[in-house]
Structure prediction request, 140 residues.
Amino acid sequence: MTESPSPSSLVGQPCRHEALLTLPAREAHVSAARHFAADLLETWSVPANERDSAVLIVDELAANAAQYGRERMTLLLVLDDGTLHIVVTDSGMAVERHRPDIAPDEHGRGTGIVQCLAQSTEVHQTRNGREVRACLRCSP
Prediction:
């Protein structure tokens, strides 16, 4: 884990917090990512409602990373000027979006939940895996 406020907080600018957690891409580690986020966001004084939404986003993204990642998953949380940036990366390959052999009520709710809760989401396939970003406004 790495956490550091940026030097901008020292000159009267809005405080920026940043934390990084890397875990094996296994379902058993999803709860560790969720608890890490919940504890950290409470420490950063993120209001309970936004914190609950953020923890649910972390849970869904970490679960996907654990399911599709091969080796590791990384959770990056950045709180900057009232916006929480949640970035989850994994070492997996692109995921097929629609599988006609699986009923829609059986899989695929995770990304819908994330899109509903976040103000914006992005998915990028990188050279080393996949990166999913979600942004959430947090009240002061």
